[in-house]
Amino acid sequence: MSLPRVIVDGPLSPDLEAMLHGQVEVLPWLAPGTDYDDTIEGVYTYGHPTVDGPLMDRLPGLRVISNNGVGVDHIDLEAAKQRRIPVGNTPGAVDGATADMAIALVLAAGRRIVESDQMARAADFEQQRPQLLMAHEVHGKTIGIVGLGRIGRQVAKRAAGFEMRILYHNRHEKAGDDTGAIYVSLDQLLAESDFVVLTVPLTATTRGMIGSREIALMKSTAVLVNVARGPIVDTAALTQALQERRIRGAGLDVTDPEPLPRDHPLLRQSNVVITPHLGSATYETRQKMAELSIENLLAGLRGDDLTHQVG
């Protein structure tokens, strides 16, 4: 009996190949406008190509879309729902690692770690001076978490270890929360926080939610950390604020666009730490993501409920 055919948007790791061996036939992602075989039953994506209604219509045999990652803003969920195609993702698998990255960026930007590293490596480095690269402590400060979901809760638990005052903002207050976080409006969170951490999904509501007005509410000593999605922040507004030192700094694991053009002014700012979307980049997390995304894929191909279905 022939194996179900699945198109994949990038090269598979050896572990993924081993998991799929003998269970599906893997086909490379085809170029736009290319005719697809109507026997293709699955789409496996890492979060890059757009999976929209027209693509789904070119795959009349499509039974499941499995995303190796949490964010599904590249998938037209309404189009999938209309066509009764289940969409799976990997929540839970990335929570701890992404929260670790958030706290790492809090520390790196807050304590000027990258600037310090560059200075220590410089050929003209001088003996340390009393006022060299002064920074503010992280311990005991106020952290504001925008989006107290799975990742946000993990950030809060880590922040508690630094004895930080923890604020959060969601669309609605979370009943029975055990993190010790205090629910406030977004404006109050921005005004009172020393570190603002973004962990919300990218939606029509959150796109551009941190713009010039919101940044103007922040303390001049505050640091903005984004481990969610780049378009949540107005890049031009953030760049200008950093250039004019209206906030102290930023730590960005995501940007808009991503990656930034090599001549982008944000890359020349010493008061920003940028990492290339590595929140989930640990061996353990990527293994969990692979396992869950494959579980979703195979369940959909069998006609079973997905381990985690979006919506």
UniProtKB/TrEMBL annotation:
<dbReference type="Pfam" id="PF00389">
    <property type="entry name" value="2-Hacid_dh"/>
</dbReference>
<dbReference type="GO" id="GO:0030267">
    <property type="term" value="F:glyoxylate reductase (NADPH) activity"/>
</dbReference>
<dbReference type="InterPro" id="IPR029753">
    <property type="entry name" value="D-isomer_DH_CS"/>
</dbReference>
<feature type="domain" description="D-isomer specific 2-hydroxyacid dehydrogenase NAD-binding">
    <location>
        <begin position="103"/>
        <end position="279"/>
    </location>
</feature>
<dbReference type="InterPro" id="IPR006140">
    <property type="entry name" value="D-isomer_DH_NAD-bd"/>
</dbReference>
<keyword id="KW-0670">Pyruvate</keyword>
<protein>
    <submittedName>
        <fullName>Glyoxylate/hydroxypyruvate reductase B</fullName>
        <ecNumber>1.1.1.79</ecNumber>
    </submittedName>
</protein>
<dbReference type="Pfam" id="PF02826">
    <property type="entry name" value="2-Hacid_dh_C"/>
</dbReference>
<dbReference type="GO" id="GO:0016618">
    <property type="term" value="F:hydroxypyruvate reductase [NAD(P)H] activity"/>
</dbReference>
<comment type="similarity">
    <text>Belongs to the D-isomer specific 2-hydroxyacid dehydrogenase family.</text>
</comment>
<dbReference type="InterPro" id="IPR036291">
    <property type="entry name" value="NAD(P)-bd_dom_sf"/>
</dbReference>
<dbReference type="InterPro" id="IPR006139">
    <property type="entry name" value="D-isomer_2_OHA_DH_cat_dom"/>
</dbReference>
<dbReference type="InterPro" id="IPR050223">
    <property type="entry name" value="D-isomer_2-hydroxyacid_DH"/>
</dbReference>
<dbReference type="InterPro" id="IPR029752">
    <property type="entry name" value="D-isomer_DH_CS1"/>
</dbReference>
<dbReference type="GO" id="GO:0005829">
    <property type="term" value="C:cytosol"/>
</dbReference>
<feature type="domain" description="D-isomer specific 2-hydroxyacid dehydrogenase catalytic">
    <location>
        <begin position="40"/>
        <end position="310"/>
    </location>
</feature>
<keyword id="KW-0560">Oxidoreductase</keyword>
<dbReference type="GO" id="GO:0051287">
    <property type="term" value="F:NAD binding"/>
</dbReference>
